[in-house]
Design goal:
It is built from eleven helices and eight strands. The chain is an alpha/beta fold and 272 residues long.
């Protein structure tokens, strides 16, 4: 079955998945010679597809790099953990699973549990990847995640920012985070999963199984908004995405690169 899965990536979904994956890797220089990349697998469709794409890149690409596949068990129930292991075996992914107690910690939080969970997960993944001798971690965020994050930031955080295709870690020296599925659309990942009769985890968090958090509800709201806007302009999500590549600083009221490095258009308005 694994051969069929691999063939579907480079054949059936070549244009929608493989070509877009390669575009992101090349355009943003995400993988370089002598890298050791930890592909972080959550159990969902995105991270498992990323793992297969990275395997194909190593097998057929011109870049000389190493791969490890890590999965943090934050407290999955037995059924969910069994599904992760089954998919890894089915897709021939040599998965390194390590434990944490993140779900137990987050379950005690009333405010912003998803934010805390994400921060703690990231730290655990960096730490384990570094312990394994890696210099990069790869996450399965895709095109739709990027667009939704832009709108969530604007609507609910009063700022304009997006998920970056790569970034240096602030807390782990010489470590980077990369997002090779940056150009891949979620609908095509779903098609890949369905086309190969694969079943993956969704969130699997104990908290969201019992409650709809503000974070998840707002992201669902944004997904629905984009869906409605696409009925009017089918290219609306692509336009939002491309806007991050073409910001005219002469037409914004202010921006900052750090807390101490801020700019207001009035700072040099009379000098022009």
């Amino acid at each position: 079955m694994n051969k069929e899965i691999e063939r579907s990536i480079v054949k059936t979904y070549r244009k929608e998945i493989w070509a877009r994956f390669i575009k992101g890797v090349k355009e943003f220089e995400l993988v370089k010679d002598n890298d050791k990349v930890a592909v972080c697998i959550s159990g969902g469709k995105d991270s498992f597809l990323l793992a297969k794409c990275m395997q194909e890149l190593k097998r057929h690409g011109k870049i000389n790099f190493e791969l490890v596949f890590i999965c943090m068990n934050p407290g999955y129930n037995e059924k969910n953990l069994k599904l992760i292991k089954s998919n890894a075996n089915k897709m021939e992914i040599d998965l390194h699973i390590f434990n944490s107690n993140i779900f137990d910690v987050v379950d005690t939080q009333i405010k912003s549990p998803c934010y805390l969970c994400a921060r703690m997960r990231r730290g655990c993944l960096y730490s384990e990847a570094k312990r394994l001798g890696c210099n990069k971690i790869a996450l399965g965020h895709h095109f739709d995640d990027v667009v939704e994050t832009i709108l969530l930031s604007m609507f609910y955080a009063s700022e304009y920012k997006t998920m970056m295709p790569k970034l240096h870690s602030d807390n782990f020296e010489n470590m980077e985070l990369i997002r090779p599925l940056y150009y891949v659309r979620e609908k095509d990942i779903i098609r890949f999963a369905n086309g190969n009769n694969l079943e993956f985890l969704n969130c699997a968090c104990k908290f969201t199984e019992k409650n709809e958090t503000e974070n998840t509800s707002k992201r669902i709201e944004i997904k629905q908004l984009i869906k409605e806007l696409k009925k009017i302009n089918p290219n609306i999500d692509n336009n939002v995405f491309k806007s991050t590549f073409d910001i005219n600083l002469n037409t914004v009221l202010g921006y900052h690169k750090s807390k101490d490095d801020t700019y207001n258009f009035l700072d040099d308005y009379d000098k022009e």
